[in-house]
Amino acid sequence: MFECLQQPGLKGHNKRMSxxxxxxxxxxxxxxxxxxxxxxxDLPGKHHHRLAFHLDSGWGFxxxxxTVINGLRPVAPGSSLVAIAVFGGTHGNEWxxxxxxxxxxxxxxxxxxxxxxxxxxxxxxxxxxxxxxxSPYDNVNMNRAFPGNxxxxxxxxxxxxxxxxIFPKVRVVIxxxxxxxxxxxxxxxSFHPVPDPAQFAEINEVASLFDTPFVLIYSxxxxxxxxxxxxxxxxxxxxxxxxxxGEGVNRKGVSHAYEGVLNVMRHYGMLDGGISKIDADRPSAxxxxxxxxxxxxxxxxxxxxxxxxxxxxxxxxQGQLLGRIHDFSNHSAPPREVYAHRAGVLIxxxxxxxxxxxxxxxxxxxxxxxxxxx
Length: 374
Ligand SMILES: [Zn+2]
Known about the structure:
This protein is of the alpha/beta class and 374 residues long. The chain has two domains: 8-291, Zn peptidases (Aminopeptidase), CATH 3.40.630; 295-370, CATH 2.40.50.100. Helices cover 19% and strands 26% of the residues. The chain has helices spanning 8-11, 95-107, 125-129, 154-166, 197-208, 227-233, 251-267, and strands at 31-33, 45-54, 61-70, 83-87, 116-120, 172-175, 183-185, 188-191, 214-218, 237-242, 287-291, 297-299, 304-308, 315-316, 321-326, 336-339, 344-350, 354-355, 360-367. It has a 15-stranded mixed beta sheet that branches. Helix 2 (95-107) crosses helix 7. The longest helix has 17 residues, at 251-267. The chain is globular and about 65 Å long. It starts with 7 loop residues before the first helix and ends in a 7-residue tail after the last strand. The structure holds zinc ion. Zinc ion binds at residues 91, 94, 143, 177, 180.
C-alpha cells in the first residue's frame, strides 16, 4: 500500500551529490529550472528549485518555488518508503499554508527523514505575489484548473505539472488552504466523500493528525477541478484544510499546518517520534463533521453587511437566529434576519462585513455519526 521508492543511497551513487556532506543544498538562491519536467526527483538530500513557467503576455516567468527532499535516513527493515507532497498558496491570499510549507522547506533535515517529501509553498506564485485568490496573469483559480493543460494559460500549465510530474511520485497529497477574503472557517482539515472504504478510512485518519478542532467532509458538487479532486480520483490519500481566514496569518492555523505535516510523516515512519498533540489547550480529539450535501451551503439572500450572532465552530439549533444582514440604503428599515435551517455545527460563515447575494453565507455540518451515509 505504500509508494515504493528506491533507496536514495542505492540509486543516487552515480549522481551529483549535494554541496555538503549532509545532503543540504547550501546555495543561497534556489536553482532556476527552465524546463520543469527536468527536475530530478530522485536526487538524495534536499534541493530547492524555482520552476520557470513563462508568462502568457510578455517576456518573463512566474518562478514557482519547489523543494524536493529524498531522505538519507535508512529505512527500518521490512518497512516501505513513503512519499508525500504538500502545497501552500494554491490560492494566493491564504497565508497559513504558505508560511507552514516554507518553514518545512527550510527546516526539514534529510538526515532525519526516510522517503520523499515534495514541497511547494506558493503553487500559484503569481496569485501569492498579488495577495489574491486567482492568478493576475490569467484570472484562473488554480484550485479549479486541474487536471491542467500543457498548452493552456499559466495556471493550467502549473496544474498540469503537478498532475503529470508530482502526483505519480507520491502517495499522500496535502493542500493547505484558508478562507481568504470570503469564508470564515473553523479550523479544520477536510476531504471529499470517497467511495472506497479503505481510502476513506485512511484519509480520515491522516486528516485527524493535524489536530484541528474539526475534520470536515465537504461537498464534491460545490466545485470541480480541485487539486485534491484529482489526487483522490487517482486513489491518493488527499487532504485539504482551512487554517484561518481574512487574509491574515492565524497563529494556531500555522501551528496545525506545520505540526500536522510532521505528524503525518511520523505516522508513516518518515520521521522518528510519536504523534504530538498540537493544541494543548484543547484536550479533545478532532470532531468529524459532515457537509457533503449542497443543501447545507446556504447562499446569502441579499447583498448587505453581515452581522454574525453566533461563533464559528459552535453548535446551533434549528431555527436559531444566526445573524442579520443590514441594508444601509435605508437606515430606518429593520435588518434581514437569518435563521439556521437545521441543527448542527456552524463550520463556515461569511468572514467579512460585506456579503454578496448568492455567495455562501454559512454552512451547517452534521455531527460525524452521520458521516458514513452517502
Ligand atoms: Zn483556498
